Structure of Penicillin-binding protein:
Amino acid sequence: MPKKRSGGGLTGTQQAAKFLGVSVLAGAVLAGIALPAAGVLGLAAKGTVKGFDEIPANLKRPPLSQRTTILDSKGGEIATVYSRDRTVVPLKDISPYMQKAIVAIEDSRFYEHGAIDLKGVLRALNKNATSGGVAQGASTLTQQYVKNVFVEEAGDDPDKVAQATQQTLGRKIQELKYAIQVEEELGKKKILENYLNITFFGQQAYGVEAASQRYFSKPAKDLDLEEAAMLAGLVQSPSRYDPVNDSEEARKRRNVVLQRMADVGNITQADADKAKASDVKLKVSRPKNGCITAVDGAGFFCDYVQQVFLADPVFGKTREDRAKIWNRGGLTIKTTLDPQAQKSAQESIKSHIYQSDQVATAVTMVEPGTGKIQAMGQSRPYGFGKNETTINYSVDKKYGGSNYGFPVGSTFKPFVASAAIEQGLSPAQVYSSPYQMPYPASISACDGKTWLNDAKSNLENEDASEIGPYGLKEAMELSVNTYFVQMIEEIGLCPVVDMVDKLGVVQGNGTKLPVAPAPLTLGSTGISPLVMANSYATFANRGMYCTPTAIESIRTADGESLAVPKSSCERAMSERTADTINTLLSGVTDSGTGRKAGLESRANAGKTGTTDERKNAWFVGYTPNLSGAVWVGSPSQQVNMMDITIGGQYHPKVYGGEVPGPIWRDAMTGALANREALAFNSVTLPEAPKDESSGGDGDGDGDSDGDSDSDGGFSPGGRLADGKPGDGEPGDGDSGDGDSGNEPIPGISVPADLLGGAASQGAGGGDAATEGQGSGSGGWD
């Protein structure tokens, strides 16, 4: 680069030579940081200034942090997020008035001097000396730019920011040397462009483009004289001259800038006088930052995208590395969210459950075959107010969800059935399926272990009329508990463990499910709606499981494409098994417990679920091209959904097919509107013999009405017998409050802090970090 300065400034070598004189150097430094000149020589003589030549030669200029835009799958904006609201623009897109105004008020000799303005230094020294205090500084625009680079690099770390702004001789000398370098490398126009893009203008606006949009709702290239002068005046003290909070102070400061522009010949005095006579006219645009501003209730999906970015090594080796990239921003993230599906989900939620209700709902939709998350919403909005929350009920704790998810009840039964069919069990298999029975004395588990029913626990069906024998078709449609426990007694626990592993089913805290009948048959443990929707998508995809994904592409501010995590697909079961499950679950929505969820003129299948004391109700269902899960319950697990009003409608008892089912039906209907109605590859199920006198009407999802004594924190209820200590499922020994006189369901105890995020959300309508799952034996559906 040429070292000749435009405007006749000194070269870098000349600048350095000037500053190697101790007294001159110290005086310039003190003037530059607006300190009195007294004691200059003595201070410098003490050797407090670091040697000029010892300062590193190159100034690191990190990319400026900018806003990140999150888009849906059609390119529509979901939200913008940023650590600093900034949009970098070239000098040609900044009003000439703005360029002249900032130079006039901050460094009128900018085009005449080099990195340091020696005339300005002497003038400041004289002014400060005669005033007896601090009256004037002498930092050039280039020096100010270098200081802003230090601040930008410090980010939001308060200690680093303090170091970047400390008023010391060493820091000032460092700025001066880097200013010389910048002048030589960039030239005046680029320095001015960089300065206008990095500077803070108040009201959370960094850079002139963001400032122009904030105060005047227009791009920086369209700023007129008065507007440019007002913004230029803000730089000295954004809070003092803030026109939003003190228009009179802002007007005075603007007029100082206008007069200075006239004094240096940028505008005529007449133009300055005319502009000074005008009022401050604002058209303020409030900041729209963060997932709280997301459209169509997509705040939780927006937050999920951020959590995925911070957690996935594809974006950086460590979480700190990934956080730096996210905070730097400037990204355009195209996601998998389908605007039609998202809007439909939110409309369905609002029509069925009120934000102020005792209970909440979460709805998640996933595309089979791709794992693309197409909708994610809930009835309590993203926020910090009453009946709001930042806990995402749809996802695991790792991604900002509840600590343990929610017990899923009988929506777990298709996993048992698919495991049994994969083991060669016929769909015509008949079990006695009594209304009430003890758990088997023992059930084979994995690695040669055996689960033992030490507690002599019992279970029962929803209705006393549900008495076998049953075949699989009727047992699935009526959600007969005893049938599936007899099934798992025959096939053992390990095939179910293997199946849920292949389907990506984990507890809400990310751990594997306990190896016991209650969690592996009747859904007593907490699982997230996203996991449930995605696992059921495997049935729709004829046995191919695909990992869920939320991000399609990412582009940086420079137009570079970043690698993104892709969905990976593996076969979890045979096509025949999946087709059989699809046929079975189609019966649930056609004539079983999910009748109220059934879709018209479109193949659909699903399963209802209701847990102990009706603390959770579920419907998980799918078509060949979309899978969705709906959970309804109290996030704190403290509400029994009996004699309850939800969405303005009274319910004596809540069933999975009654409240979640219609939410699913309406959400899916809108999401699939104008999309092809595909068919399942159905199979013919063999008829199983059955006593005609048995069987209920199938209205109850197999729920126990909460009247058994298995209401939650139950006793160990069984153990794995391998001679090793600690294999029994932990529990608190609570035998429940029911009247059946039975032993509790064997399973697992549930921690008191079942729900909540990493931090308390006390304002979120009971969503504090200490929220508990409450009951969790949950196998009653």
Notes: The longest strand covers residues 616-623. Residues 169-186 form the longest helix (18 residues). The chain has 24 helices and 21 strands.
